[in-house]
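Researcher: Structure for this, please.
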Amino acid sequence: EITRYLIPVAAQHLRRVLKAHPELPQGEGEGGSKWFTLEEVLVLRQHFASEGISTKEYLPYRPKGVPAKVT
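Model: Predicted structure, token format:
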């Protein structure tokens, strides 16, 4: 679900990146499932924003200085 809703990458690509970068949050789980905290998701988003494909938006758009909307 993290790759469906929060980080726009294929699940297998996320697994490859996590294996290649042990310094990134690895999540917790059993049997191939991974659970990430919000802080870990934000770290992963930042990594993909700096290292990923430039045509994809890994971070949500928000004008500088404007707080996030909470509905």
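Researcher: Any notable elements?
Model: The mean pLDDT is 88. Residues 49 and 58 are 5 Å apart (CA to CA).
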